[in-house]
Amino acid sequence: MSAAELTQKVEDALEEIRPFLQSDGGDITLLGIDDDKIVRVQLQGACVGCSVNQMTLKSGVEMTIKKHAPQIEQVINVVA
User: Fold this and answer.
1) Contacts of 42 (CB under 8 A, 6+ apart)
2) 23 Cβ partners below 8 Å, 6+ apart?
3) pTM of the predicted protein model
4) Which residues contact 49 (CB under 8 A, 6 or more apart)?
5) 71 or 49: which carries more pLDDT confidence?
6) Phi/psi at 57 (nearest 5 deg)?
């Protein structure tokens, strides 16, 4: 799979989960993909200060991304 195809699959996954984040006043942005294995994202809005954002990141975002792109091993939130 090319880098562009992988990026598109990750973007598709984020589009799938974005409405749930936005319903709580948050959002998410893809910053990059390292070594075709590690996705860097940035949680935004209400997600930044939310006490359960790590749970959201692992059980929601990471699971959804891995469903679309199984080769992804980890999703990391980059704090601004």
Assistant:
1) 28, 29, 31, 77, 78, 79, 80
2) none
3) 0.89
4) none
5) 71
6) -60, -45
Tokens matching residue 6: 């992988």
Strand pairing category for 74-77 and 38-45: parallel
pLDDT in tens, 62-76: 999 999 999 999 999
Are 7 and 30 contacting, i.e. CB atoms less than 8 angstroms apart?
yes
Q: What is the DSSP string of the chain?
A: --HHHHHHHHHHHHHHHHHHHHHTTEEEEEEEEETTTEEEEEEEEHHHH-TTHHHIIIIIIIHHHHHH-TT--EEEEPP-
C-alpha to C-alpha distance for 31 and 51, rounded to whole angstroms? 22
Q: How far is CA 58 from the centre of its chain?
A: 9
